[in-house]
Amino acid sequence: MYGETWGGSEQLWGAAAHVLLKAEHRVAAGVNHWPGPRREWDALQAAGCELHIREYFPRLPGRLLNRFLSTAQKIPAPNATHDWLKNFQPDLVVVCQAWTDDGLEIMEMCRCHQWKFASIVQAASEYQWPDDARALRLREVYQAVCGAFFVSRHNWHLTEKQIADPIARGEIAWNPFSVDHQKPLSWPDENQSFKLACVGRLQPDAKGQDILLQVLAQDRWRQRPLTVTFFGKGVNRQQIERLAAMLGVKKIQFGGFVSGVSGIWKDHHALVLPSRKEGLPIVLLEASLCGRPAICNRTAGVPEVLDDGVTGFLSAAPEVDLFAEAMERAWENRSHWREMGLRAAEKVRALVPEKPAETFAARLAQLASM
C-alpha cells in the first residue's frame, strides 16, 4: 500500500508472517514508509519479524549532502535498493502487489540474484494495462516465479491477457477475514427501516461511492425507509460528503473505520458495494459469512462468490443506470434478504477455508523447501 498505514492488500502477507513466525521460521518484511499509527508493524516486530522500512527520500542529512555530491555519490533513501535482502539470503521472497505489476522491479531483482520468489496480486483492472516494454518484463518474471497467487480467477486471467502469456504457476489465495466462519449472525430488526452498509476505503475511483449517491438521489429512493452508512476511511471523505450534499442525499451517515466487523452486521441488513475495480473484496466475504446479501457491481472476482438473485444482486457494470436497476431488484425482493443471506453464508463457507492465513503460510513453507 502507498499512503495508507494498512489496508486489505496487507492482510494476507501480514497474517501469514505471524503464522510462519510461530512455526519458528525466520521472517523479514520490507514495507513502504507510512504516516500515522503503526499497530500492525509493531505487532509483527513484537512477534520477531525483522522490519525494513522503504522510504521515498533520504533522511535530512543525506538530502543536504546530495546537493553537493555527484550523481554516483548521492545517498539513497533508506532501504530503497532492498540491499537488506542480500544480507538476509532468503529461501523465498514473497512480493505482495496491490496491482499486477507494482512489484516488477523487486521480482526482477530476485530473478537476477537467483532467489526463489512468489507473487501476490491483490487487484487488477481492465483500465490499467502495461505498455509493450513492461509487458515483456512481466512475462519474464511470471515465467520465473515459483508461485503466482491471485485473490480471484478474474485477476489471474486478466493478468494473463494483459501480458499475453499464460501464467502456468498461478494459484488462488484467499484473504483472511475477521468474522465467524461457521455461524451467521441473527437478523436485524427491520420494522422501522432497512439499513445498508457500504464498507470500503473512501475512494470513489476504486470503490464507486459516487455511483451509489447518484442512485440514492433519485426520487424513489428519497421516499423509501432505507438508510446507508459508509464505513471506512480514505482520502476522499470530504468530497463524498460534499457530493451527497450537492445531490441532496440525506439518509446517509459515516461510521468511520470499524475494527470489529461483526458489529456492522448486527445492525445492517445488506452490503452495498458499487466498486469500479477490485480483487475479491474481503468485505463481501465477511458480509456473506455473517448472513447478509450484497448488492454489487459485476467487478473482478465478485461474481465468483455472489450469485445474482440467489445470494445477492449484481449490476452488469459500474454505471449509474445499471446499478440503479440492481438496487431496484434488491428493493423489490427485500422480503427475501434474510434467506438470501443464509445462502450467501453457506456458499462462502464452501469456498473459503476457515483459516486462510494458515493455508497460505503452509503453501509458502512448501515452496521455500522445494
Labels describing this entry:
370 residues; alpha/beta; Rossmann fold; 2 domains; six-stranded parallel β-sheet; four-stranded parallel β-sheet; 43% helix; globular
Q: Uncertain segments of ≥5 residues (pLDDT<50)?
A: none
Q: How much β-strand is present in the residues?
A: 15-25%
Order of helices and strands: HEHEHHEHEHEHEEHHHEHEHEHEHEHHH
Helix content, binned percent:
40-55%
Kindly state the mean pLDDT as a whole number?
92
Q: List the total number of helices.
A: 17
The best one-word shape is globular
Q: Write the CATH architecture name of the largest domain.
A: 3-Layer(aba) Sandwich
CATH superfamily of the largest domain: Glycogen Phosphorylase B
| Main β-sheet, spatial strand arrangement | 9-8-7-10-11-12
Output the CATH class name of the largest domain: Alpha Beta
Structure description:
The protein has 370 residues and is of the alpha/beta class. It has two domains: 8-176 and 355-369, Glycogen Phosphorylase B (Rossmann fold, 3-Layer(aba) Sandwich), CATH 3.40.50.2000; 194-351, Glycogen Phosphorylase B (Rossmann fold, 3-Layer(aba) Sandwich). 43% of the residues lie in helices and 15% in strands. It contains 17 helices and twelve strands. The protein has helices at 8-22, 39-46, 60-66, 83-88, 104-113, 132-144, 153-163, 204-207, 209-216, 219-222, 237-247, 261-267, 282-289, 302-305, 320-332, 337-351, 356-369; strands spanning 28-32, 50-54, 93-97, 117-121, 147-150, 170-172, 194-199, 226-231, 252-256, 270-273, 294-297, 312-315. The strands form three sheets. The protein has a six-stranded parallel sheet, sandwiched between helices. Helix 11 (237-247) links the parallel strand 8 and strand 9. The protein is globular.
